[in-house]
Amino acid sequence: DQHATYFLTCTTVGWVDLFTRKECVDIILDSLAFCQKNKGLVINAYVIMSNHIHMIVYARENGPGLSSILRDFKRFTSNQLIKWITHSKKESRRDWMKVVMAYHAKFNKNNEKFQFWQQYNHPVVCTNAKFTWQKLDYIHLNPLKAGIVENPVDYLWSSARNYAEYDDCRVEVELIPPNIDIGYIFQ
Hints:
Layout: E1 6-11, H1 22-39, E2 41-48, E3 52-59, H2 66-87, H3 94-105, E4 124-125, H4 129-145, H5 160-163, H6 182-186
Antiparallel strand pairs: 1-3, 1-4, 2-3
Helix pairs in contact: 1-2
């Protein structure tokens, strides 16, 4: 179902830690905002970790389906991130990253030279409130469990700040109401 609500994960090839760089996180955040404004992407929750992104998302009925939005998001961000890697003087691991991305591209006929994202997004449909809230907690607790922060709202690249009603949130999030059946809301 291209318009159902999904928990999904986008992971860099070789689990390369690139989202430790603010410029790379900005590429992701700007692209998510573009997809929201122009493609009908709705984000219920997200976290950008060093080498992967978790999200709870769905596509509005009047736009393209979720797989098309994700395809375009991954294509655009991979092009932008590869360009940043190859041209930024800040990235000291450039040569190693290019080797990793070239290696993974050899196994995917859709890539000419480099592959940035793993192909599969591991989508799981959010069929009920319990599962969805479990995934929401998982998303928001990821930086805490990784030892990055002591409180989930202290992590800047997460919707935990949206749910805590902070004013400095970079991504617009449609909050999931507590104790409501998700399928009823989003179907």
